[in-house]
């Protein structure tokens, strides 16, 4: 006994037929003879003749007492009819390929997430290194200043007044936090985690026309020279230096430190820092009067 799929275009459906309900072909005729008969649906199959064709893929049972005859019949049938159904091997292979593609897609997504995390870490690390390098340059410039004691005292006076002004303004905007913010250093520490303090701090800087790097330069100057410098009042400062802006421009080579000191002078003298064009170069001796006893 063998099983066979019915190819497209074969004889009409005979399920339920007495001629095909048993295991033998009608009238003792073997199935090989039936297979060799025309499959155009017009053959006379008794009272079950119908124009309806067997559905593609219908299984039917047949017997053949002559294997060689049956083999030739099947060969002729396969040569004339092509089974239109799917190839099971191809389906299984396609499923395996789809599974592998899905696994690769999941791996690529994980790699993309890892790449994004590494990129963010690298950018943060790069910014940190750049900030540290800039701070190192400012420290080097502050320690290498060639000012006299009087000049350092004058610059220190501007710096300390600006820092006090910033701290006072923050406390004015945060009266409920006066006791928790006793110094400017405490304000700067709170800006990292406290959003409210951070917002107020940024608004104060904007009011005075300052930037974060300006405050960093001023704090660096204060830490480096605050232990030995003295504060000069405004009238005393004017007695010694006619134009402190020109002195800063000519003596301070580090751009960040120079900008910070210049803006500190502007905040104290004009109430707000503004960007001014470069001053004309002149002899420093013309700006520093000779000392009088």
Summarize the structure.
By secondary structure, this protein is mainly alpha-helical.
* Radius of gyration computed on alpha carbons: 48 Å
The number of distinct structural domains comes to 3
Strand content: under 5%
What is the mean predicted local confidence, pLDDT? 74
Quaternary = single chain
Give the biggest beta sheet. Answer: 2 strands, antiparallel
- In total, the number of strands is 2
Quickly count the helices: 11
Identify the overall geometry: elongated
Order of helices and strands: EHEHHHHHHHHHH
| Unreliable segments of 5+ consecutive residues | 1-65, 277-293
Structural class: mainly alpha
Please bin the fraction of helical residues: 55-70%
Give, in spatial order, the strands making up the sheet with the most strands.
1-2
Span between termini: 133 Å
Question: How would the blueprint of this fold be written?
Answer:
Blueprint: E1 2-5, H1 31-36, E2 59-62, H2 67-80, H3 88-143, H4 149-173, H5 184-193, H6 195-208, H7 212-225, H8 234-240, H9 244-251, H10 255-270, H11 284-287
């Amino acid at each position: 006994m063998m099983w066979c799929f019915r190819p497209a275009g074969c004889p009409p459906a005979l399920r339920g037929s007495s001629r095909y309900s048993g295991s033998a072909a009608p009238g003792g005729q073997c199935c090989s003879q039936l297979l060799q008969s025309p499959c155009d649906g017009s053959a006379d199959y008794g009272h079950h003749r119908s124009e309806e064709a067997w559905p593609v893929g219908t299984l039917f049972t047949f017997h053949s007492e002559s294997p060689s005859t049956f083999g030739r019949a099947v060969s002729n049938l396969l040569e004339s009819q092509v089974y239109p159904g799917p190839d099971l091997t191809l389906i299984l292979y396609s499923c395996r390929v789809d599974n592998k593609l899905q696994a690769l897609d999941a791996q690529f997504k994980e790699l993309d997430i890892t790449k994004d995390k590494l990129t963010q870490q690298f950018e943060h690390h790069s910014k940190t290194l750049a900030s540290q390098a800039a701070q190192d340059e400012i420290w080097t410039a502050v320690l290498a200043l060639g000012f006299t004691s009087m000049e350092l005292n004058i610059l220190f006076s501007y710096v300390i007044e600006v820092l006090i002004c910033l701290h006072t303004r923050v406390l004015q905007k945060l009266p409920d936090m006066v006791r928790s913010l006793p110094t400017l250093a405490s304000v700067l520490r709170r800006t990292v985690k406290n959003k409210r303090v951070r917002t107020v701090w940024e608004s104060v800087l904007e009011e005075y026309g300052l930037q974060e790097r300006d405050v960093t330069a001023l704090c660096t100057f204060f830490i480096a020279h605050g232990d030995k410098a003295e504060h000069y009042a405004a009238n005393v400062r004017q007695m010694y230096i006619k134009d402190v802006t020109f002195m800063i421009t000519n003596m301070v080579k580090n751009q960040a430190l120079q900008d910070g000191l210049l803006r500190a002078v502007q905040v104290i003298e004009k109430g707000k820092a503004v960007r001014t064009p470069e001053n004309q170069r002149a002899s420093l001796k013309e700006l520093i009067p000779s000392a009088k006893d």
